[in-house]
Design goal:
Helices cover about 35% and strands about 20% of the residues. It is α/β, with parallel strands linked by helices.
C-alpha cells in the first residue's frame, strides 16, 4: 500500500493506493504552512492511522524540486522552501518518499486514467490561476527527479504585435516579462481584456460575453487564442503528444477549449483530423491519483 498526499497551501488531502484501480481517499487536514515539525507530525499521524505500514509515501506538491540540489521551492508553504525535502522527510518518517509537483501529478493522472489513456506521450496543460503543465512519456514523467519540464507558461515568448494590436510587456510573477502565464492565465485574460477594451470583467464574464458574440470580448478572446496557439503548436511539434489534456478553471469552458484546439491544429506540422486539446477526464482527485502513479512506478523500479 502507498500512502498518498496532495499538499496544498490550505489543506493536505490523503489517500491509500492499493493499486491504480483501488485508490481510497482518507479525507483532508489543514496544512501547517509555517511549522515543519507540525507538518511532519500531520504526516506521521496519517501513517499511524493507516491499516498497515505503507511501502512508500508519495506526494503531489504545489511547488518545484530542484533536480540538482533537491531543494524545494513552495511559495504557499514557507516551512518547506529551501529544504532538501525528500531526504528530510525520509529521515523523519523512516519510509521511502517520492515527490512530484501538482502539474506533473495532474499529467500522470490524465495519462493513467484520464484523457491520455492509450497514448505514449501526454502533455497535461494547466490553464487557470497559472499556465503550466507536465509531460508523461510511456507512463513516466519525463523529469522523474523533479525540475521544470513542462513549464511552458514561463519564458519571454508572448507576442506583442498581433495584427494592428500592440500589447504591453506584461510582467510575470516569476520575474520575467512576456510570459504566457502573465497574459493567458485567468487573471492574465482579465488584464488582456482590460488593456484591449477598457472593461473590467472576470474571466468567466469575458468567456460568456465571447460566447454571446459581444464585440469587445470576441476581440479579447481572439487575441488570447493567438497568443496561446503558436507556442502550443511549437510544443506539439517538439513532443508529438498523442493528446494535450487541459485542467484548471479555464478548462470549464468547452467552447473555449474547442476554439483553442482548432487554432493549434491549424498550426502544427502533423495534420490531425481529431481533437488534440481536450478537457481533462480524471474522475477523482488528480493530485492523489498522480501521487499514486508516482509511488507505484517507484515500487516497480529495480
Amino acid at each position: 500500500m502507498i500512502l498518498c498526499f496532495d499538499i496544498g497551501g490550505t489543506a493536505i488531502k490523503i489517500a491509500e493506493a492499493w493499486s491504480l484501480e483501488d485508490i481510497r481517499p482518507r479525507g483532508r487536514v489543514p496544512t501547517p504552512g509555517q511549522d515543519f515539525a507540525g507538518f511532519t507530525a500531520v504526516l506521521q499521524a496519517a501513517i499511524d492511522a493507516a491499516p498497515e505500514r505503507p511501502e512508500c509515501l508519495a506526494f503531489s506538491i504545489a511547488g518545484v524540486i530542484d533536480p540538482e540540489t533537491g531543494q524545494a521551492t513552495v511559495a504557499n508553504i514557507p516551512c518547506l522552501t529551501g529544504r532538501r525535502l525528500q531526504a528530510e522527510l525520509e529521515a523523519r518518517l523512516s519510509l521511502p518518499v517520492v515527490l512530484g509537483n501538482d502539474a506533473d501529478c495532474f499529467a500522470l493522472a490524465e495519462a493513467a486514467i484520464g484523457a491520455g489513456r492509450g497514448h505514449a506521450v501526454v502533455f497535461g496543460i494547466i490553464l487557470g490561476t497559472g499556465v503550466g503543465g507536465g509531460i508523461v512519456v510511456r507512463g513516466d514523467l519525463i523529469n522523474g527527479s523533479g525540475g521544470f519540464a513542462g513549464e511552458w507558461g514561463h519564458g519571454p515568448v508572448a507576442q506583442r504585435i498581433i495584427g494592428n494590436t500592440v500589447l504591453p510587456a506584461f510582467p510575470c510573477g516569476c520575474g520575467l516579462t512576456g510570459c504566457l502565464d502573465a497574459v493567458c492565465s485567468a487573471r492574465g485574460m482579465e488584464k488582456l481584456h482590460l488593456t484591449l477594451s477598457g472593461e473590467t470583467s472576470t474571466a468567466e464574464e469575458i468567456i460568456a460575453a465571447w460566447q454571446a458574440r459581444a464585440p469587445a470580448a470576441s476581440r479579447s478572446i481572439g487575441v488570447w487564442l493567438e497568443l496561446l496557439s503558436g507556442p502550443l503548436a511549437m510544443v506539439q511539434n517538439m513532443l508529438g503528444a498523442g493528446v494535450m489534456a487541459v485542467g484548471g478553471g479555464l478548462s470549464n469552458s468547452r467552447p473555449l477549449l474547442a476554439a483553442l484546439d482548432e487554432a493549434v491544429r491549424a498550426r502544427v506540422l502533423q495534420k490531425l483530423h481529431r481533437p488534440l486539446i481536450v478537457p481533462a477526464e480524471c474522475p477523482i482527485e488528480p493530485g492523489l491519483v498522480g501521487a499514486a502513479v508516482l509511488g507505484l512506478n517507484r515500487l516497480r523500479q529495480p
